[in-house]
């Protein structure tokens, strides 16, 4: 049992924790990052790699747009690791009248944030994506969205932060936050070690919920199993992110393989599992969706399937920012399955806040205390997304 | 919880070796030198090295190279083989076509 000190203690070595460590260390702050498993163990390494502004809730749009405008374009250069970012657009398929309307709403939201998105149909759609089947009746097209490699981005931030002097300790599970004179100062781990700093950042996914509860902060969230598949490498088919209103999403990676995910509609029934596992059902749903929308992919071989946890916030957007009730505490959790693209911006924002600088964008609507249980009861929004089952 | 690792521990400098250009992962064509360098960049678990370099991510899914990669990383870190956890074994056991896999839905 030992006590170590730094300016900032970060819990969670995912994209947000690693990015915060990088930006803080670059600004001359001393950081210690604590991780229960290994670097990038959670959702940061298990997602589709989409860097998307379109389809965002207005409350989190600015963060996603900030990352696309200010961080992603130069990230590979900055980290010295090719994060495989390609800003070649995002095409989201609609299958019926109702989804056509939902895409139109997305177009309006994007426009209100100055991001161009348009509807593509018929020949226009075939021009962008000649592989779509007749099942796809329309598609939303956002040229400024893109894709990247989530594993390399998450590890890239770690590699650079470590090189600059941030301390990373893995296999060190944070179990408690201690307050001293009313402010969050110490993180206690399962091994009995204590890490003390002026600021504490909790970016630990679903586990963060329990850590925050040790200082009386309750974030309403639950975890949902999410699964993906990857194929063998194929000749270049498309360079943009692909998605469907059914919930399927994916890309052709720089390597040539295609990675795709799609909910089967049974995700919430696996929440009691301790570790994420690939179930016997979801991979087939993903393959079925791909076969229906993009029949050309049917001949490709699936080489691997994997899964991860999505931590779902009660009202569908993350909790990000300072927890004023516990001075010194900053959080970024409950990213609800869309935390990767804005991840670099979230890490940067937390780093700014930890240095008592203003947030680069307005994050007030992501405040921890926004859940109003008394009046209008919020509901888990994505619980209704039945994915392939509802198609 | 994983094994405790202080990633600031000094593991010594990267010293080039004569056989650094030998291919270890044949599917993805990753060399011994690339793996050794990744360890010196701070990637101290087999999964981290795999996620950065793609070794063991090809058609054979590491069935050929996993043991060799493990030995290279363990030697570089100066730890026993048993201390390194191998990456998760993931389905399917053999590559399956998207079309065939998708047909499974009917039998669910």
Task: Describe the protein in words.
The complex is a heterodimer of chains A (391) and B (108). Chain A has two domains: 3-48 and 151-219 and 315-383, 3-Layer(bba) Sandwich (FAD/NAD(P)-binding domain); 87-147 and 222-313, D-Amino Acid Oxidase, Chain A, domain 2. Chain A is 26% helix and 25% strand. With 391 residues, chain A is α/β, with parallel strands linked by helices. Chain A is globular, with a radius of gyration of 20 Å. In chain A, helix 1 packs parallel to helix 6, helix 1 (15-26) crosses helix 9 (343-354) and helix 2 (58-71) packs across helix 9. Mean pLDDT of chain A is 93; it is low at 382-391. By secondary structure, chain B is α+β, with helices and mostly antiparallel strands. Chain B has a single domain, classed as Arc Repressor Mutant, subunit A (Orthogonal Bundle), CATH 1.10.10. Chain B has helices at 32-40, 46-53, 66-77, 98-103, and strands at 5-6, 23-25, 30-31, 96-97. Chain B has a two-stranded antiparallel ribbon. In chain B, helix 1 crosses helix 3. The radius of gyration of chain B is 16 Å and the shape is elongated.
Order of helices and strands of chain A: EEHEEHHEHEHEEHEEEEEHEEEEHEEEH
User: What CATH architecture label of the largest domain in chain A applies?
Assistant: 3-Layer(bba) Sandwich
Shape of chain A: globular
Shape of chain B: elongated
Strand order of the largest sheet of chain A: 6-7-5-15-16-17-14-18
Q: Profile the largest sheet of chain B.
A: 2 strands, antiparallel
Provide the gyration radius of chain A in Å: 20 Å
The class by helix and strand makeup of chain B works out as alpha+beta
Average pLDDT of chain B works out at 95
Tally of individual helices of chain A: 9
CATH topology label of the largest domain in chain A? FAD/NAD(P)-binding domain
CATH superfamily of chain B: BFD-like [2Fe-2S]-binding domain
